[in-house]
Design a protein that fits this description.
The complex is a heterodimer.
Chain A: H1 5-13, E1 14-19, E2 22-26, E3 29-33, H2 37-46, E4 57-60, H3 80-94, E5 97-99, H4 109-115, E6 124-127, E7 141-144, H5 147-156, E8 158-161, E9 165-172, H6 181-192, E10 200-205, H7 207-211, H8 214-222, E11 231-233, H9 238-244, H10 253-264, E12 276-281, E13 288-290, E14 298-300, H11 322-332, E15 347-350, H12 358-368, E16 378-381, H13 386-394, H14 397-404, E17 406-408, E18 429-432, E19 447-450, H15 453-462
Parallel strand pairs in A: 3-4, 3-6, 4-5, 6-7, 9-10, 9-12, 10-11, 15-16, 15-18, 16-17, 18-19
Antiparallel strand pairs in A: 1-2, 2-8, 13-14
Helix pairs in contact in A: 2-3, 2-5, 6-8, 12-14, 12-15
Chain B: E1 6-8, E2 11-14, H1 21-24, H2 44-47, E3 72-75, H3 87-95, E4 99-102, H4 107-115, E5 119-122, H5 125-137, E6 145-147, E7 152-155, E8 158-161, H6 166-174, H7 178-183, H8 186-199
Parallel strand pairs in B: 2-3, 3-4, 4-5
Antiparallel strand pairs in B: 1-6, 6-7, 7-8
Classes of the chains: A alpha/beta, B alpha/beta.
Bound molecules: iron/sulfur cluster.
Chain lengths: ~475, ~200
């Protein structure tokens, strides 16, 4: 029978079907971070339970750690130290691999895992973090879970999961220069709503996805959860295999050959049937920016802030009601109907598991080279991992950022989210490469506009939301 | 885990879509390595006047006297979307919420609910609107009655039937611990583990 990639992965990991209505799925790798992993580990210990296979469990410090130079366990976030210490102790007691604060491999979980070759095609990988779907870009079945589920996976190496439906999104055509994976996924969510893939495991396919490098595919899969998908997946291809070759945790020697042969078969069969299919034309896609408080509040850069009363007449009432639009507009502090471009910003943020890998930094730096961030705009770049940071420094990108007026930080989630520590100011308008523009996500009452690294860099220079295509250097045109 | 069979209680409406887990429990309210002490931070961004403060915002539904003691929430679609933080469920439970009624839920959130004895109950938007309208007439008196074994909600003399996965229902009704339950399948898991080692050696 013809199978989709998701169905193949599911079958390979199905321990038992219909256990109390769910499937029992075998879990190959577990990642924990100090924010939620600390609780899972301490709760496990309190219940006297043990990790079944510690060799397959990895921990990282990313959410609460400071990103200043010379950071220590004492964090800007009050009580952050407790989370860090609890994770360190929990990891040591259970015998887990930890990428600690001072480890040169430290970074954001979803950046570190692929970078180390821990995420691989054909593996199931879970983490108590919703953006675990990022790692589906390598053809791994990777999804976010809660803490109780993490405990379940740690103890039994399985999870009880209701099997999601299958969905394929085909991005066809070719992206114009200055348009990126971030714009693809924002557009998809903007068009079909934040609940658009609820109940589905999504496979991203089509010529525009094939053309993306692995890092772009990670950006795409990262926001699958903002589309309410169970996870996002891209079938492994030669790019995936080249990406993984030689990475520290990737198979080596003979094992590599076996793995590669298996990975090459991890594609949806040509006649496989998906429960749902969507097609997006990328030829005409423009850079996208959010105007509101949900990733579905997305418009093309040439577009305008919506007029809530129009929602009453729209055919599709499912995605947003007039009331919701009004509320979002009030929070974000923009006039209805005005063009999105030209709205002044207070801050620019390049960071997070969505867009802080080396290719993102290269793109932003290309736009910033020889330019200055507009006076009065606070601009920050937080590399996705210390390895990304080191790489960027080796290429001299850090100088481009700092010369332009950006702060250059150590790695962590930083101001992707506000946990009581460092944050952007009240009602400040931030253009950000992150994935969530929820109310107060980046600081109390902070107003977030999601965009690509190109759009953020260009907007930092302009001091306002702008189309990055006018700022592209020769090599990106 | 606390069992869920029947429950009757005051139902508070937060009738908007995409109520995310950041809104249910802001990150800044997750101060300790603990599942406890989170109830106070529930909906903190809406419930209190100032970020980080504790002066109540009298307009927020849970602060209105007519909704005092609410143990059921009525909301819009995709409730609990966003961050996977289980703190959202722990905060709701500690506050005293036993069930959330919405047209749909964030998948991770719904799972977290079931692992903690909180019922994520799906009803059509119109049904929820009708229940909310009836409740609003006299919130303390007009309390919906949820019957999980019977898969129904009674409100205003109407009986609304809902669907729920058999597994989830059993977990909630019997108050089961998922880990202990899965451990009864240990021989099968171990066998699978050994076979997988053999078949996909590079994974180990
Ligand atoms: S960078 Fe942001 S979205 Fe990514 S894991 Fe960290 S907090 Fe979550």
């Amino acid at each position: 029978m013809a199978l989709t990639l998701f169905e193949k992965l599911w079958q390979e990991h199905l321990v038992e079907s219909s256990v109390d209505g769910d499937d029992l799925i075998y879990i190959d790798r577990i990642f924990l971070h100090e924010r939620t992993g600390s609780i899972a580990l301490s709760s496990l210990a309190a219940d006297g339970r043990k990790v079944f296979y510690p060799e397959h469990v990895f921990c990282v410090m990313d959410h609460i750690v400071d990103t200043y130079p010379d950071r220590t366990d004492d964090t800007t976030m009050p009580s952050g130290r407790d989370f860090i210490v609890a994770t360190r102790e929990g990891a040591r007691e259970a015998g887990l691999t930890l990428f600690d604060l001072d480890d040169p491999r430290q970074g954001i979980v979803h950046v570190v895992s692929p970078e180390q070759g821990i995420a691989q095609p054909g593996l199931t990988l879970v983490c108590p973090d919703s953006h675990t779907c990022t790692q589906g870009a390598l053809g791994a079945l990777a999804w976010g879970i809660g803490s109780s589920e993490a405990e379940h996976a740690l103890v039994t190496k399985t999870l009880r999961v209701k099997r999601p439906g299958t969905m394929r999104v085909r991005f066809e055509g070719e992206l114009a220069p200055g348009v990126t994976a971030k714009d693809m996924i924002l557009h998809l969510i903007g068009r079909y709503g934040a609940g658009g893939a609820s109940g589905y495991a999504m496979e991203f396919a089509g010529s525009a996805v094939e053309a993306l490098d692995i890092e772009g595919r990670m950006t795409l899969c990262n926001m699958a959860v903002e589309f309410s998908a169970f996870t996002g997946l891209v079938a492994p291809d030669s790019k995936t295999i080249e990406y993984l070759r030689g990475r520290p945790y990737a198979p080596q020697g003979e094992q590599w050959d076996l793995a590669e042969a298996h990975w090459r078969g991890l594609v949806s069969d040509p006649d496989a049937v998906f429960d749902k299919e969507l097609v997006i034309d990328c030829d005409t896609l423009e850079p996208q920016v959010t105007w509101g408080t949900s990733p579905q509040h997305t418009v093309a850069i040439s577009g305008s802030v919506p007029v809530p009363r129009d929602a009453d007449n729209a055919d599709d009432k499912s995605s947003a009601t007039r009331q919701e639009l009004e509320r979002a507009l009030q929070y974000i502090g923009l006039e209805q109907g005005v063009p999105l471009q030209g709205n002044a910003i207070d801050c620019a943020f390049i960071g997070s598991c969505t867009n802080a890998r080396i290719s993102d930094l290269r793109l932003a730096a290309a736009i910033l080279r020889g330019k200055q961030v507009k006076k009065g705009v606070r601009a920050i770049c937080v590399p996705g991992s210390m390895i990304v940071k080191a790489q960027a420094e080796a290429e001299g990108l850090d100088r481009i950022f700092t010369d332009a007026g950006f702060e250059w930080r150590s790695s962590g989630c930083s101001m992707c989210f506000y946990a009581g520590g460092e944050h952007f100011g009240e009602r400040e308008r931030v253009i950000s490469t992150t994935n969530r523009n929820f109310e107060s996500r980046q600081g109390p009452q902070t107003r977030t506009h999601l965009a690509s690294p190109a759009t953020v860099a260009a907007s930092a220079i302009a001091g306002a939301i702008v189309d990055p295509r006018g700022y592209l250097p020769e090599e990106y045109r | 885990m606390e069992k869920f069979e029947q429950h009757e209680g005051v139902a508070a409406p937060i009738l908007r879509g995409n109520v995310d887990t950041d809104a249910i429990i802001p990150s800044r309210e997750m101060k300790r390595v603990s599942k406890l002490g989170l109830g106070e931070g529930l909906f903190a961004g809406w419930r209190y006047r100032e970020i980080g403060g504790r002066e109540v915002n009298p307009d927020f539904v849970l602060n209105r006297p007519e909704y005092a003691g609410a143990s059921i929430l009525l909301s819009g679609s995709n409730f609990g979307c966003g961050s996977s933080r289980e703190h959202a469920v722990w905060a709701l439970k500690e506050y005293g919420i036993r069930a959330v009624i919405a047209p749909s839920f964030g998948a991770i959130f719904a799972n977290n609910c079931i692992r903690n004895g909180l019922l994520p109950l799906e009803l059509a938007e119109q049904a929820i609107a009708a229940i909310a309208a009836w409740v609003a007439e006299a919130p303390q008196a007009n309390q919906p009655l949820i019957d999980l074994p019977g898969q129904s909600v009674e409100a205003n003399g109407q009986r609304y039937v809902f669907d729920i996965e058999a597994g989830a229902k059993r977990m909630l009704v019997e108050g089961l611990d998922a880990i202990a339950l899965t451990q009864t399948h240990w021989p099968v898991i171990e066998q699978f583990h050994e076979q997988r080692k053999h078949k996909y050696p590079w994974v180990y």
